[in-house]
Amino acid sequence: MTVQNDQDLEGIRRVGAVVAKTLSTMATAVTPGITTQELDDIGAAVMRSAGARSAPQLVYGFPGVNLISVNDEVVHGIPGSRRVQPGDVVKLDVTAEMDGYIADAARTVLIPPASELANRLQQCSIAAFGKGMIAARVGAPVRSIGAAVERQVRDCGFHVLRELSGHGVGRTIHEPPTIPNYDARFATERLARGMVITIEPLITASVTASFTASDGWTTCTRDGSLAAHHEHTIIVWDSGPEIVTRDAD
User: Fold this and answer.
1) What was the pLDDT predicted at 248?
2) Is 116 exposed, middle or buried (0-12, 13-18, 19+ CB in 10 A)?
3) Residues near 104 by Cβ (< 8 Å), separated by ≥ 6?
4) Residues with Cβ within 8 Å of residue 191, at least 6 apart in sequence
5) What is the helix (H) or strand (E) element at residue 131, kind and residue range?
6) Which residues pair with residue 99 across a beta bridge?
7) Is residue 2 helix, strand or coil?
8) How far apart are CA 53 and CA 196, in angstroms?
9) Rounded CA gap, 119 and 127, in Å?
10) Cα-Cα-Cα-Cα dihedral sign, residues 233, 236, 237, 241
11) Beta strands 53-54; 89-98: pairing state
């Protein structure tokens, strides 16, 4: 969506704050022994108390409230009986709807003792998001975001999953434009003032591809390598991007 008026701006900021609080609360609860279902229940309670709903459930019929993925699972993991173990790399992805507006954010949480590789991967996903955000300027082509993300990821020695991308958001989960995490020649649309998008590096420790698991939802690395995911919803302004899910960090 593109912010057209004060109502749009207030709506996207309000749901962004709910996403931020949900994600932060879940991240704090990630401890060895907790199940991904218990984490999802914690996030669901935060949403419910704010009057928000799970957008993946509403739009796609996702069988959970929040997306929780572990280790080689990149994204779209279904909450369940799996217990988080020491050393795990946990991706939390929260997308909420409230009053007709939707915001989306994700972060990677490491369970001590985290490996050096896991630490570098997590920090790279954060740095790549930052580079992408710097490139998100009014009038810039969408491909400039992906070019900045991929450059940072390569500098870290890691790999971008090209089949996964950011996107427009606001009234539904996935809206135009697609925001590739690489310098995609087709992504020539120009960023406009007030455009609401996600920037979300989805990166892996090795050069690999992804596949969808037998549950029909979970996206995993084909070679079993670790993955990280960092995402925020932003609004593109003349003065620079505004992160509406900022407290998620």
Assistant:
1) 52
2) exposed
3) 19, 55, 93, 94, 95, 169, 173, 198, 200, 231, 233, 245
4) 136, 137, 138, 139, 140, 141, 142, 197, 236
5) helix 116-135
6) none
7) strand
8) 19
9) 12
10) positive
11) antiparallel
Note whether 241 and 191 are within 8 A (CB).
Answer: no
What are the chain's domains? 6-244 (3.90.230.10)
- Whether 74 and 210 have beta carbons less than 8 Å apart is answered as yes
The token duo for 150 is: 């991929």
In sequence order, which residues have a C-beta less than 8 Å from that of residue 49 and are 6 or more positions away? none
pLDDT tens for the chain, residues 1 to 249: 999 999 999 999 999 999 999 999 999 999 999 999 999 999 999 999 999 999 999 999 999 999 999 999 999 999 999 999 999 999 999 999 999 999 999 999 999 999 999 999 999 999 999 999 999 999 999 999 999 999 999 999 999 999 999 999 999 999 999 999 999 999 999 999 999 999 999 999 999 999 999 999 999 999 999 999 999 999 999 999 999 999 855
Nearest CA to 103 out of 193, 1, 178, 204 is that of 1
Q: In a 10 Å sphere around its CB, with 0-12 CB exposed, 13-18 middle and 19+ buried, how is residue 41 labelled?
A: middle
| pLDDT of amino acid 249 | 53
Asked if residue 196 lies in contact with residue 2, where contact means CB atoms within 8 angstroms, the answer is: yes
pLDDT of residue 44: 98
What secondary structure does DSSP assign to 77-112, as a single string? Answer: PPP-SPBP-TT-EEEEEEEEEETTEEEEEEEEEEPS
Q: What residues contact 10, with CB distance under 8 A and at least 6 apart?
A: none
